[in-house]
Amino acid sequence: MTSTAVRRTVMALVGLVLIGACWELYKDFAPADGISVFGTRVLPRTGDSSMPHLGSIWSAFGSQEVSLAGSSSVLGSIVSAGLHTLALALGGLVVGAVVGLALALLMDALVVAERALLPWIVLSQTVPLIAIAPLISGWGAGLHFGGFQWQQWMSVAVIAAYLSFFPVSVGMLRGLKSPTAVHTELFRSLSAGRITTLVRLKFPAGVPFLIPALRLGAAASVVGAVVAETSIGVPDGIGRVIIDYSQQATGDPSRLYAAVIGAAVLGLIAAALVGLLDLGLRRYQRGRTA
User: Fold this and answer.
1) PROSITE patterns in the record, alphabetically (predicted)?
2) Does residue 30 come out as left (phi exceeding 0), alpha (psi in the -120 to 50 range) or beta?
3) Does the structure show a pLDDT above 50 at 72?
């Protein structure tokens, strides 16, 4: 492991410790009704029904399951459902990355395409996701091609792709336009064709922009999958677990917090998987040190 990776790991662990310390300090010393400004509560209540101790949340992972079948513990249910959600999110990420790359290539090749498409690409991310998910599920339910029938999990994957294509398209477009005028003119003076310039110059220059974009897209795909599962009512997946635990959280919300932590970990795992691609393309990462 390089010194940079060690330093990042240590900083991440320190950040988690500080967040946990702030959580416990706020719970122990803040007012029971939370903190309000001009009559509006800006920080939550500190009671166990709203903000359990971190120890209670940790203990919830090992507690026995109540309503969800197929597992003997809360941790087992979260892991099983999380793997299902992660598979859908990664599938959506692949589709979103392909669409994003295609749009970036089109906008880089044609200025008129960039002017026409880029505002709509940005605008697409302003539409409330919770409103789009039922629409996509409804549209998909009416699709029939011979023996093919649209499934609910396909709607979840489409929502994940919908969120992930945006950072990929914008990030890769920026990367494709990053080569300097000197390098571009050099390829032009050598009579390099459009494909050669793309493969030898623009794509390698775009890799440092593509990797962070894919990390954002991976995290966004998990968010889209979880929101879609809760909105559409998919029986499997961690979104369903969150809904079920929220209905059980009247007395002890520790399980709900455990499920939310599980969903957050999925986003980290998805972003970490992109790091494997980063290792394969490390030689294109300019200015990086070991």
Assistant:
1) ABC_TM1 (PS50928), PROKAR_LIPOPROTEIN (PS51257)
2) beta
3) yes
